[in-house]
Each structure stands twice: as structure tokens, then as C-alpha cells.
């Protein structure tokens, strides 16, 4: 029963198939009948990418810059025990428990991915080497389910990482 509104735009420009650029933008707004507007996913997401290739497209260099809009993380903290009721006064005290909720605002983050790929090496082998988060953006990721566990906090995003992909085609 969620109300989801999305607008997506993708533009791609290619020049003699040796050079291409693309730009994408996504707006999404999600409203849940119980939780209201979901703020743990970004409403705005934009990507700008480019790929240049050489040797009849056998070798390529790619770059993708992604801007992820701000989000919010709902944190739940365990309730603190009530203070001891003093022995003097009109009678026993009443404990008023706070909700234990706080919202952490997670700012916009820029993520850059660079890649080098080769196609059909030795006729059958494709290789790609990628570096994710080249800018080493320190960021936090929201708890997507607003899970009702105690002491939930935004999870740190990974720093710069590297990966290699190999495919064999026969």
C-alpha cells in the first residue's frame, strides 16, 4: 500500500563509439501508510559518466560520479532506568519514559568509480578492474527498515575499494 512517485531521466551521447557520456537523474518519493514519508532513501540521485575506448573498443576507461541526496536515519536508544524515588515527599514517583528516538541527518555524498576494462583478450577473456569510492567519501548509510532494535545507528559506508572481474566466453 505504499505510495511511490518516481521520475527518471537518462541522456546518453556517443561519438563514433569511441567516446560516450551519460547523465541520469532520479527523483523518488515514497510514503508508507503507517510510517509516513520514508526518509531513509534519498529523494534525489544523479550520475554523470564517461567511457573512452581504444583499439576497436577492446580497451576502455570509465568514470562514474554519483551524487546521492541527503537522507535521515531513525535511531532508537534503549530507555535509561528511572532515577531512584526519594524517601521523602508525597509518595512514589512516576517514571515517564521518553520515546528514545532521535533522527540523524545524513548529508549528500559524492561517490566516484573508475574502471579499466578489456574485451576479448585471446579471443575469449574479458577483464575489468574497478576502483570504487575513489574520493574516499566518508559516509553513513541509513538503516533502511528503521528497525526497532535498541542501539541502531547509521552504518559507515566502505572506504575506497578495488575489485577485479573476469569473464570467459566460448
Describe the structure.
The chain is an all-beta fold. 0% of the residues lie in helices and 56% in strands. It is built from no helices and twelve strands. Strands 1, 2, 3, 4, 5, 8, 9 and 12 form an eight-stranded antiparallel β-sheet that branches. The radius of gyration is 24 Å and the shape is elongated. The relative contact order is 0.17. The model has no long low-confidence stretch (mean pLDDT 81).
- From the spread of the alpha carbons, the general shape counts as elongated
Report the sheet with the most strands, covering strand number, pairing sense and barrel closure: 8 strands, antiparallel
- Annotation, overall tally of beta strands: 12
N- and C-termini, Cα separation: 46 Å
Topology:
Layout (H helix, E strand, L loop, with lengths): L2 E13 L3 E14 L3 E2 L6 E11 L4 E10 L2 E6 L24 E6 L2 E13 L3 E8 L7 E2 L13 E2 L4 E8 L2
Antiparallel strand pairs: 1-2, 2-3, 2-4, 4-5, 5-8, 6-7, 8-9, 9-12, 10-11
Amino acid at each position: 500500500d505504499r505510495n511511490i512517485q518516481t521520475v527518471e531521466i537518462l541522456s546518453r551521447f556517443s561519438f563514433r563509439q569511441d567516446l560516450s557520456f551519460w547523465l541520469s537523474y532520479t527523483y523518488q518519493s515514497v510514503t508508507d501508510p503507517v510510517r509516513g514519508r520514508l526518509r531513509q532513501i534519498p529523494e534525489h540521485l544523479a550520475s554523470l559518466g564517461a567511457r573512452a575506448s581504444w583499439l576497436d573498443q577492446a580497451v576502455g576507461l570509465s568514470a562514474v560520479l554519483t551524487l546521492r541526496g541527503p537522507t535521515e536515519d531513525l535511531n532508537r536508544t534503549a530507555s535509561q532506568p528511572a532515577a531512584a524515588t526519594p524517601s521523602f515527599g508525597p509518595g512514589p514517583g512516576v517514571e515517564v519514559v521518553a520515546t528514545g528516538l532521535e533522527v540523524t541527518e545524513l548529508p549528500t555524498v559524492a561517490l566516484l568509480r573508475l574502471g579499466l576494462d578489456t574485451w576479448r583478450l585471446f579471443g575469449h577473456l574479458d577483464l575489468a578492474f574497478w576502483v570504487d569510492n575513489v574520493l574516499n567519501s566518508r559516509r553513513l548509510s541509513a538503516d533502511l527498515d528503521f528497525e526497532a532494535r535498541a542501539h541502531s545507528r547509521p552504518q559507515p559506508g566502505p572506504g575506497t575499494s578495488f575489485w577485479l572481474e573476469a569473464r570467459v566466453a566460448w
